[in-house]
Amino acid sequence: MARASTTSDAFNAVAEPRRREILSYLAGIERPVGEIAEALGLEQPSVSKHLRVLKDVGLVRMRCQGRQKLYRTNAEAIRPLHAWAATFERYWQHQLTRVKARAEAMARQGSPQLDLSKSKEK
Amino acid sequence: MARASTTSDAFNAVAEPRRREILSYLAGIERPVGEIAEALGLEQPSVSKHLRVLKDVGLVRMRCQGRQKLYRTNAEAIRPLHAWAATFERYWQHQLTRVKARAEAMARQGSPQLDLSKSKEK
DNA sequence: TTGACATATTCCTATATGGGAATATACCGT
DNA sequence: ACGGTATATTCCCATATAGGAATATGTCAA
Prior knowledge:
Two copies of one chain form a homodimer.
Chain A (H helix, E strand, L loop, with lengths): L9 H4 L3 H9 L5 E2 H8 L3 H13 L3 E6 L2 E6 L5 H8 L2 H4 L2 H15 L13
Antiparallel strand pairs in A: 1-3, 2-3
The structure holds a DNA duplex.
Protein backbone atom coordinates (compact mmCIF):
# COMPACT_ATOMS: atom_id res chain seq x y z
CA MET A 1 0.00 0.00 0.00
CA ALA A 2 1.15 3.50 -0.63
CA ARG A 3 1.01 6.55 1.52
CA ALA A 4 -2.43 7.80 2.42
CA SER A 5 -3.92 10.46 0.21
CA THR A 6 -3.16 14.05 1.08
CA THR A 7 -6.89 14.55 1.14
CA SER A 8 -7.49 11.79 3.64
CA ASP A 9 -7.34 14.10 6.64
CA ALA A 10 -5.97 17.35 7.99
CA PHE A 11 -2.76 15.70 9.12
CA ASN A 12 -1.89 14.60 5.63
CA ALA A 13 -3.00 17.83 4.03
CA VAL A 14 -0.92 19.88 6.38
CA ALA A 15 2.22 17.82 5.87
CA GLU A 16 3.05 19.91 2.82
CA PRO A 17 4.89 23.13 3.74
CA ARG A 18 3.29 25.24 1.01
CA ARG A 19 -0.11 24.28 2.24
CA ARG A 20 0.79 25.37 5.73
CA GLU A 21 1.97 28.67 4.32
CA ILE A 22 -1.29 29.08 2.50
CA LEU A 23 -3.26 28.33 5.63
CA SER A 24 -1.28 30.86 7.61
CA TYR A 25 -1.69 33.42 4.90
CA LEU A 26 -5.43 32.89 4.73
CA ALA A 27 -5.95 32.95 8.46
CA GLY A 28 -8.61 35.48 9.23
CA ILE A 29 -8.61 36.97 5.76
CA GLU A 30 -10.17 36.17 2.45
CA ARG A 31 -8.08 36.28 -0.70
CA PRO A 32 -8.36 35.42 -4.38
CA VAL A 33 -6.12 32.74 -5.83
CA GLY A 34 -3.96 35.11 -7.80
CA GLU A 35 -3.11 37.16 -4.78
CA ILE A 36 -2.19 34.06 -2.81
CA ALA A 37 0.11 32.97 -5.60
CA GLU A 38 1.78 36.33 -5.78
CA ALA A 39 2.10 36.76 -2.06
CA LEU A 40 3.70 33.36 -1.58
CA GLY A 41 5.69 33.29 -4.79
CA LEU A 42 3.97 30.25 -6.21
CA GLU A 43 2.60 29.38 -9.63
CA GLN A 44 -1.12 29.81 -9.98
CA PRO A 45 -1.83 26.20 -10.98
CA SER A 46 0.17 25.07 -7.99
CA VAL A 47 -1.89 27.21 -5.68
CA SER A 48 -5.12 25.97 -7.22
CA LYS A 49 -4.04 22.40 -6.63
CA HIS A 50 -3.08 23.03 -3.05
CA LEU A 51 -6.32 24.84 -2.43
CA ARG A 52 -8.18 21.88 -3.83
CA VAL A 53 -6.57 19.59 -1.31
CA LEU A 54 -7.18 22.04 1.51
CA LYS A 55 -10.79 22.46 0.50
CA ASP A 56 -11.31 18.71 0.25
CA VAL A 57 -10.40 18.29 3.89
CA GLY A 58 -12.27 21.40 4.94
CA LEU A 59 -9.21 23.42 5.85
CA VAL A 60 -10.30 26.29 3.65
CA ARG A 61 -13.63 27.70 2.56
CA MET A 62 -14.34 29.20 -0.80
CA ARG A 63 -16.70 31.87 -1.99
CA CYS A 64 -17.25 33.09 -5.52
CA GLN A 65 -17.12 36.76 -6.29
CA GLY A 66 -17.48 37.56 -9.93
CA ARG A 67 -14.72 35.88 -11.83
CA GLN A 68 -12.60 35.30 -8.84
CA LYS A 69 -12.85 32.87 -5.98
CA LEU A 70 -12.08 33.98 -2.49
CA TYR A 71 -10.52 31.54 -0.09
CA ARG A 72 -10.09 31.71 3.63
CA THR A 73 -8.78 29.36 6.25
CA ASN A 74 -11.32 27.40 8.23
CA ALA A 75 -9.49 27.34 11.54
CA GLU A 76 -11.92 24.88 13.07
CA ALA A 77 -10.47 22.16 10.89
CA ILE A 78 -7.09 22.69 12.47
CA ARG A 79 -8.40 22.05 15.92
CA PRO A 80 -8.10 18.26 15.82
CA LEU A 81 -4.45 18.67 15.02
CA HIS A 82 -4.00 21.05 17.90
CA ALA A 83 -5.95 18.80 20.19
CA TRP A 84 -3.86 15.79 19.31
CA ALA A 85 -0.61 17.64 19.88
CA ALA A 86 -1.94 19.08 23.13
CA THR A 87 -2.26 15.53 24.36
CA PHE A 88 1.48 15.54 24.85
CA GLU A 89 1.60 18.87 26.60
CA ARG A 90 2.24 17.46 30.03
CA TYR A 91 5.27 15.60 28.74
CA TRP A 92 7.08 18.61 27.47
CA GLN A 93 6.17 21.35 29.86
CA HIS A 94 9.22 22.70 31.56
CA GLN A 95 10.91 22.18 34.85
CA LEU A 96 8.16 23.24 37.18
CA THR A 97 5.54 21.11 35.61
CA ARG A 98 7.82 18.21 35.07
CA VAL A 99 9.08 18.26 38.63
CA LYS A 100 5.52 18.32 39.78
CA ALA A 101 4.69 15.36 37.58
CA ARG A 102 7.58 13.43 39.01
CA ALA A 103 6.56 14.28 42.50
CA GLU A 104 3.16 12.91 41.70
CA ALA A 105 4.58 9.73 40.29
CA MET A 106 6.77 9.22 43.32
CA ALA A 107 3.92 9.95 45.62
CA ARG A 108 1.79 7.39 43.87
CA GLN A 109 4.10 4.46 44.26
CA GLY A 110 6.52 5.73 46.86
CA SER A 111 5.95 7.69 49.99
CA PRO A 112 2.27 7.78 50.86
CA GLN A 113 2.95 11.03 52.67
CA LEU A 114 2.88 13.18 49.58
CA ASP A 115 -0.29 12.71 47.68
CA LEU A 116 -0.45 15.19 44.86
CA SER A 117 -2.31 12.79 42.64
CA LYS A 118 -5.34 14.98 42.72
CA SER A 119 -3.65 18.06 41.35
CA LYS A 120 -5.56 19.72 38.61
CA GLU A 121 -5.11 20.24 34.95
CA LYS A 122 -4.49 23.54 33.21
CA MET B 1 8.71 16.32 -7.72
CA ALA B 2 7.13 13.86 -5.39
CA ARG B 3 5.81 14.25 -1.92
CA ALA B 4 8.35 15.16 0.71
CA SER B 5 9.89 12.30 2.61
CA THR B 6 8.11 11.14 5.74
CA THR B 7 11.37 11.75 7.52
CA SER B 8 11.64 15.33 6.38
CA ASP B 9 9.92 16.73 9.44
CA ALA B 10 7.50 16.03 12.25
CA PHE B 11 4.53 17.09 10.14
CA ASN B 12 5.24 14.47 7.53
CA ALA B 13 6.11 11.78 10.04
CA VAL B 14 2.92 12.35 11.96
CA ALA B 15 0.71 12.23 8.89
CA GLU B 16 0.60 8.46 9.16
CA PRO B 17 -2.12 7.29 11.59
CA ARG B 18 -0.17 4.31 12.88
CA ARG B 19 2.70 6.54 13.78
CA ARG B 20 0.40 8.77 15.74
CA GLU B 21 -0.89 5.74 17.58
CA ILE B 22 2.62 4.70 18.39
CA LEU B 23 3.47 8.15 19.68
CA SER B 24 0.41 8.19 21.88
CA TYR B 25 1.18 4.75 23.16
CA LEU B 26 4.77 5.66 23.97
CA ALA B 27 3.91 8.92 25.66
CA GLY B 28 5.50 8.94 29.05
CA ILE B 29 6.40 5.29 28.98
CA GLU B 30 9.17 3.19 27.54
CA ARG B 31 8.36 0.00 25.68
CA PRO B 32 10.11 -2.64 23.62
CA VAL B 33 9.17 -3.08 19.97
CA GLY B 34 7.40 -6.38 20.47
CA GLU B 35 5.10 -4.96 23.06
CA ILE B 36 4.24 -2.02 20.86
CA ALA B 37 3.40 -4.36 18.03
CA GLU B 38 1.20 -6.49 20.21
CA ALA B 39 -0.51 -3.59 21.92
CA LEU B 40 -1.39 -1.91 18.64
CA GLY B 41 -2.03 -5.04 16.65
CA LEU B 42 0.69 -4.41 14.11
CA GLU B 43 3.33 -6.59 12.54
CA GLN B 44 6.75 -6.29 14.09
CA PRO B 45 8.52 -5.25 10.90
CA SER B 46 5.92 -2.60 10.37
CA VAL B 47 6.48 -1.22 13.84
CA SER B 48 10.23 -1.23 13.33
CA LYS B 49 9.84 0.75 10.15
CA HIS B 50 7.54 3.28 11.73
CA LEU B 51 9.87 3.65 14.66
CA ARG B 52 12.70 4.27 12.27
CA VAL B 53 10.84 7.18 10.74
CA LEU B 54 9.87 8.54 14.13
CA LYS B 55 13.42 8.25 15.37
CA ASP B 56 14.80 9.95 12.28
CA VAL B 57 12.78 13.04 13.01
CA GLY B 58 13.41 12.87 16.73
CA LEU B 59 9.87 11.99 17.70
CA VAL B 60 11.02 8.99 19.68
CA ARG B 61 14.13 8.12 21.61
CA MET B 62 15.65 4.68 21.85
CA ARG B 63 17.62 2.91 24.51
CA CYS B 64 19.12 -0.54 24.37
CA GLN B 65 18.47 -2.99 27.15
CA GLY B 66 19.94 -6.37 26.52
CA ARG B 67 18.48 -7.78 23.39
CA GLN B 68 15.58 -5.44 23.32
CA LYS B 69 15.32 -1.80 22.43
CA LEU B 70 13.14 0.46 24.45
CA TYR B 71 11.39 3.33 22.75
CA ARG B 72 9.65 6.33 24.20
CA THR B 73 8.03 9.40 22.76
CA ASN B 74 10.06 12.57 22.76
CA ALA B 75 7.25 15.01 23.34
CA GLU B 76 9.45 18.02 22.73
CA ALA B 77 9.49 17.15 19.05
CA ILE B 78 5.74 17.50 18.91
CA ARG B 79 5.84 21.04 20.18
CA PRO B 80 6.45 22.70 16.81
CA LEU B 81 3.31 21.04 15.55
CA HIS B 82 1.35 22.22 18.55
CA ALA B 83 2.81 25.69 18.22
CA TRP B 84 1.87 25.92 14.58
CA ALA B 85 -1.67 24.81 15.22
CA ALA B 86 -1.93 27.18 18.18
CA THR B 87 -1.33 30.00 15.75
CA PHE B 88 -4.91 29.59 14.63
CA GLU B 89 -6.34 29.42 18.10
CA ARG B 90 -7.75 32.90 18.01
CA TYR B 91 -9.71 32.07 14.89
CA TRP B 92 -11.56 29.18 16.33
CA GLN B 93 -12.13 30.16 19.92
CA HIS B 94 -15.75 30.66 20.71
CA GLN B 95 -17.86 33.76 20.79
CA LEU B 96 -16.92 35.04 24.18
CA THR B 97 -13.22 34.66 23.70
CA ARG B 98 -13.34 36.03 20.21
CA VAL B 99 -15.29 39.06 21.22
CA LYS B 100 -12.88 39.62 24.04
CA ALA B 101 -9.93 39.37 21.72
CA ARG B 102 -11.47 41.88 19.41
CA ALA B 103 -12.18 44.23 22.23
CA GLU B 104 -8.58 43.97 23.31
CA ALA B 105 -7.32 44.64 19.83
CA MET B 106 -9.53 47.67 19.56
CA ALA B 107 -8.46 48.96 22.92
CA ARG B 108 -4.79 48.58 22.07
CA GLN B 109 -4.84 50.73 19.01
CA GLY B 110 -7.97 52.66 19.67
CA SER B 111 -9.23 51.86 16.23
CA PRO B 112 -12.95 52.09 15.73
CA GLN B 113 -12.70 49.41 13.06
CA LEU B 114 -12.59 45.79 13.80
CA ASP B 115 -9.31 44.82 12.35
CA LEU B 116 -8.13 41.47 13.55
CA SER B 117 -5.25 41.32 11.18
CA LYS B 118 -3.26 43.80 13.15
CA SER B 119 -3.80 42.50 16.64
CA LYS B 120 -0.71 41.38 18.43
CA GLU B 121 0.57 38.14 19.78
CA LYS B 122 0.18 37.38 23.40
C1' DT C 1 -19.59 37.44 -30.03
C1' DT C 2 -15.00 38.41 -28.97
C1' DG C 3 -11.24 39.15 -26.10
C1' DA C 4 -9.12 39.42 -21.67
C1' DC C 5 -8.81 37.99 -17.20
C1' DA C 6 -9.17 34.40 -13.16
C1' DT C 7 -9.04 29.77 -11.90
C1' DA C 8 -9.10 24.83 -12.56
C1' DT C 9 -7.72 20.67 -14.75
C1' DT C 10 -4.98 17.45 -17.43
C1' DC C 11 -0.79 15.17 -18.77
C1' DC C 12 3.74 13.89 -17.67
C1' DT C 13 7.40 12.00 -14.63
C1' DA C 14 10.72 11.19 -10.89
C1' DT C 15 10.27 9.86 -6.40
C1' DA C 16 8.59 7.89 -2.19
C1' DT C 17 5.58 5.27 0.17
C1' DG C 18 3.55 1.25 3.49
C1' DG C 19 2.44 -3.45 3.77
C1' DG C 20 3.70 -8.38 3.32
C1' DA C 21 7.05 -11.85 3.06
C1' DA C 22 11.46 -13.29 3.69
C1' DT C 23 15.78 -12.60 5.59
C1' DA C 24 19.52 -10.43 8.13
C1' DT C 25 21.54 -8.81 12.40
C1' DA C 26 22.24 -8.62 17.35
C1' DC C 27 22.16 -10.42 21.78
C1' DC C 28 21.17 -13.86 25.34
C1' DG C 29 21.69 -18.18 28.13
C1' DT C 30 23.64 -22.61 28.21
C1' DA D 1 29.37 -22.49 19.26
C1' DC D 2 24.42 -23.05 19.16
C1' DG D 3 19.56 -22.34 19.34
C1' DG D 4 16.27 -18.94 20.47
C1' DT D 5 14.58 -14.49 21.04
C1' DA D 6 14.19 -9.40 19.72
C1' DT D 7 14.71 -6.03 16.01
C1' DA D 8 15.99 -4.35 11.74
C1' DT D 9 16.43 -4.55 6.85
C1' DT D 10 15.55 -5.89 2.09
C1' DC D 11 12.74 -6.85 -1.87
C1' DC D 12 8.57 -6.22 -4.39
C1' DC D 13 4.68 -3.34 -5.95
C1' DA D 14 0.38 -0.69 -6.32
C1' DT D 15 -0.52 3.89 -5.43
C1' DA D 16 0.00 8.77 -4.90
C1' DT D 17 2.32 12.54 -5.11
C1' DA D 18 4.13 17.88 -6.50
C1' DG D 19 5.79 20.59 -9.98
C1' DG D 20 5.92 22.27 -14.83
C1' DA D 21 3.76 23.00 -19.13
C1' DA D 22 -0.14 23.26 -21.64
C1' DT D 23 -4.87 23.64 -21.86
C1' DA D 24 -9.71 23.87 -20.36
C1' DT D 25 -13.47 26.28 -18.01
C1' DG D 26 -15.74 30.34 -16.44
C1' DT D 27 -16.84 35.14 -16.10
C1' DC D 28 -16.83 39.87 -17.14
C1' DA D 29 -16.87 44.01 -20.31
C1' DA D 30 -17.52 46.22 -24.54
